[in-house]
Write a structure and sequence with these properties.
mainly alpha; 0% strand
Length: 252
Amino acid sequence: MTSETTEPVGDPVHPEDIGPHADEPHHEGVASRLNWLRAGVLGANDGIVSTAGIVVGVAGATTDRSAIVVAGVAGLVAGAMSMAAGEYVSVSTQRDSERALLAKERRELRDDPDDELAELADIYTGKGLDADLALEVAQQLTAHDALRAHAEAELGLDPDELTSPWAAAWASMISFTLGALLPLLIISLIAASARVWVTIVAVTAALALTGFVSARLGEAPPGRAVVRNMAGGLFAMLVTFLVGSLLGTRIG
């Protein structure tokens, strides 16, 4: 008799490629990039709504193109700076807290490694592993990288992927500016008789787009997000237009 060996056909199959979630992105950094994209879309959305509110409000008070443009540019610059400063302060505070938590974990791992190992094993027991397997997992992860194991299991942090406050500030400022340019350019280029309505239509369409994109990035149904976004922007422009019209009549 002759023995036959069966050669594998095609590429080897890895366990992580099997099952209904094989096409989902699980590599490190994907969630972080999605969060940045979502933040960028929301920053652009803020720029659209706030600047549209300013220029439509001023247009309700006067037909002077230069006054509208000056107000819009001032709103764009002030909003972009405010977004950048606010994001820098917020992320810096978050980063300081994350560093303090990581420093505490380092101390605990240095001073009381046995209790930290038991704590890590308890976490995995709480996730559904039996005690022996949880201890084995904890031991292997601790041997590989104790700080990372505890940071991810206890704190939900990646020690090598802390958010940069400068990156957050620049991203917020740029996305806000790009969003704000839309209503500013439209209302400054369209004739006085149609500028308000054209701006409202363009802004509403842009808000529908940002609502759709933000919902898709968050894997949520886009319908409600689009309607909420459009309704909020329309309400803001209506209120500022009415206020501008009222003030224009009183002051004029």
